[in-house]
Amino acid sequence: DQVSDFTCICKRGFTGERCERAIGLLQVYVKRGYNLPDSDGFGAGRSDPYVRVTGYDEDRKTMSLRTSEKSGTHYPVWNQNLFFGYRSWKSIKIEVMDADGFFNGKDDSLLPIGIFTFSAPFSGSRVHRICNSS
């Protein structure tokens, strides 16, 4: 019988005797908006809203996804799933924006930014290990 000794040298974010880190699938379902404000100003027409979600992981990496743009409405219906994949997600930022188009400048925020922090591994998480043999 061969026996190997392993010493875990834990990378940042990995803990415990076996260098474990909970990872989970992050999926955000964006349903609809209701009575969104008009950010384009008087006479400029209705907003063209979309939602941008940014995920932040344990390694300080980010990933941003967005819904489709809904033209000229204060009551958009998206019914879209945004799939971020498996990582050690720490938080998400949700922004509801008004698309202003290429020639009209920067997109405007329609609502205050929402930030949500995950305090513990969430349902459906699994464990990832990194160990170096000695």
- What is the percentage of strand-forming residues? over 45%
Low-pLDDT runs: none
Number of helices: 0
Shape: elongated
Give the helices and strands as they follow along the chain: EEEEEEEEEE
**Alpha-carbon Rg, integer:** 21 Å
What's the main sheet like? 5 strands, antiparallel
Which structural class matches the secondary elements? mainly beta
Using brief descriptors, characterize the structure shown.
134 residues; mainly beta; five-stranded antiparallel sheet; three-stranded antiparallel sheet; 0% helix
Strand-helix topology:
Elements: E1 6-7, E2 20-32, E3 49-57, E4 62-66, E5 77-87, E6 89-98, E7 108-109, E8 114-117, E9 126-129, E10 132-133
What does this structure look like?
With 134 residues, the protein is mostly beta strands. 0% of the residues lie in helices and 46% in strands. It is built from no helices and 10 strands. The strands form 3 sheets. Strands 3, 4, 6, 7 and 8 form a 5-stranded antiparallel beta sheet that branches. The protein has a 3-stranded antiparallel beta sheet with strand order 5-2-9, with no helix packed on it. The two termini are 18 Å apart.
Quick take:
With 134 residues, this protein is mostly beta strands. 0% of the residues lie in helices and 46% in strands. The two termini are 18 Å apart.
